[in-house]
Design a protein that fits this description.
Number of domains: 2
Helix content: 25-40%
Largest sheet: 9 strands, mixed
Radius of gyration: 22 Å
Strand content: 15-25%
Number of helices: 15
Distance between the termini: 49 Å
Shape: globular
Number of strands: 22
């Protein structure tokens, strides 16, 4: 009796308090604590203030009965870093969208341009690609088109590139971004130097490896390069989009990563739930031999993002001179499913929508995992899916306040209907919002309410190291 009375006394302040927002009667899922139960969640001052089996009082109360309430999804690989893309992210349950593969440079001005203007949280690495492009006066925009892709850097250029990457870390970047496949003339020594910098600064390197596919040197060789660099320097390593690099060799690559993890190496990886990649047709990825490197595909395996047309030998030459995004239908379905089901592989979109054109992963990645691979395919459990989309990315970044539905965590919260959530974006029409995600909060503010985007709100904050 005394214990019961004491428990009531401890609970009374929680029940008596009025919260900014209460999400009532939802199925609260938190992978770190293995919580999966009906609870009421109270939010105050942008943080989760209470999780209670008893009712809570809120200035705004949402009845989440029949809905899953969990930590907002963290997209480690989101090239679309503008209002258009943040809207697709929010409707897909993403509360934090990060540019970690290519990264940015300069870093400080990139963050400043988004502060107070972003629908979701944002952040970036200090990018080796943009730094190299700046130093070598490359004419490309996101990716190199000429000098940074086609020639080796001089000793002076390597030093300048290194210094720009270092400066980006000084300005708060989340790590170092590197796309070796887009700078194929970067020497092994140049790449190793960047890993050494990452180790000195205790930040991870997010890497698009040098080669893909089965032909040697291919995906296995490319993964061996960065695993060796990580081992030699002690830098943390995150390998982006494992399926589009490994193709049918993805099981081999996952085995290599698992073995490295068992031996204490800090290495992680990610994948998106689609059977096609996308990149700039004008980039180094499409130098001679690209068909073999992408699993013996043909011109018809390429889809021009702007029009949806499949390419021919003639249109390939024309569009390559022009430059622009092309979708590469090269990933076997069984490989996509394998990676999404693997408990060690995080979910990340590699997404970018520009004026409604692009790849469906830019709008539907997270809903597709929940709707297609969890509900329809039973490839993984809901708890595992949420873990791969929230907790694991937060752990990769070393951020304690996100990726968790726990008291004290930031109130980045996604509420979805497990029976209805699904992606609507397609390869022919990627600019379609996901469905079945009626509520999303970023730092305690609604950005999606009753299934619609909230207008004139910008609660997103910059994440820095």
């Amino acid at each position: 009796m005394k214990l019961w009375f004491f428990s009531l006394l401890m609970l009374a302040p929680v029940l008596a308090q009025t919260y900014d927002v209460v999400l009532a009667n939802g199925r609260v899922v938190d992978p770190e604590t293995n919580l999966d139960a009906i609870r009421n969640v109270g939010v105050n001052g942008g943080r989760i203030a209470a999780i209670s089996a008893s009712p809570l009082t809120g200035r705004t109360t949402v009845d989440a009965k029949g809905l899953v309430v969990t930590a907002g999804f963290i997209d480690l690989h989101s090239h679309g870093q503008d209002a258009e893309n943040y809207a697709y992210k929010a409707r897909d349950g993403v509360t934090t969208a990060l540019e970690l593969e290519v990264g940015v440079n300069p870093v400080a001005s990139w963050y400043a341009a988004r502060e107070g203007r972003a629908l979701v949280n944002f952040g970036a690495t200090s990018g080796h690609i943009p730094a190299r492009m700046a130093v070598m006066h490359d004419s490309g925009t996101l990716l190199p088109r000429d000098a940074a892709a086609t020639r080796a850097a001089t000793a002076g250029e390597r030093k300048e590139t290194y210094e720009l990457v270092r400066q980006g870390l000084d300005e708060g970047a989340l790590g170092i971004g590197m796309g070796i496949a887009y700078t194929p003339k970067a020497s092994r020594e140049e790449i190793l130097e960047i890993f050494e910098l990452a180790a000195q600064r205790r930040v991870p390197v997010f890497v698009h490896v040098r080669s893909s596919g089965p032909a040697e040197p291919g995906a296995v060789d490319a993964l061996q390069e960065v695993l060796s660099d990580a081992l030699a320097t002690g830098a943390g390593l995150h390998v982006v989009h494992i399926t589009s690099m490994g193709l049918r060799q993805t099981p081999v690559l996952l085995g290599m990563i698992a073995g490295a993890q068992r031996r204490g190496l800090d290495v992680t990886t990610e994948a998106y739930p689609y059977t096609a990649a996308m990149t700039d047709l004008g980039s180094a990825v499409f130098e001679e031999g690209w068909q073999t490197r992408n699993g013996d595909i043909t011109f018809g395996s390429l889809q021009w993002a702007l029009t949806g047309e499949r390419l021919t030998a003639e249109s390939f030459v024309r569009y390559r001179k022009q430059g622009g995004m092309v979708i590469i239908h090269s990933i076997p379905e069984e490989i996509a499913r394998l990676a999404i089901a693997d408990p060690t592989v995080m979910v990340a979109s590699d997404g970018q929508i520009e004026h409604g054109k692009g790849h469906p992963r830019g709008a539907g990645t997270f809903a597709r995992v929940l709707g297609h691979y969890v509900r329809e395919e039973h490839a993984l459990t809901l708890m595992d899916a949420v873990r791969k989309m929230s907790l694991m990315p937060a752990q990769r970044l070393g951020i304690q306040s996100k990726g968790r539905l726990q008291v004290g965590a930031d109130a980045d919260i996604t509420v979805f209907d497990a029976d209805r959530v699904i992606d609507r974006a397609t390869f022919d029409n990627p600019a379609q919002y996901s469905e079945g995600i009626p509520y999303v909060l970023v730092n305690g503010a609604f950005v999606v309410k009753d299934g619609q985007l909230e207008q004139n709100v910008a609660p997103g904050r910059g994440l820095r190291r």
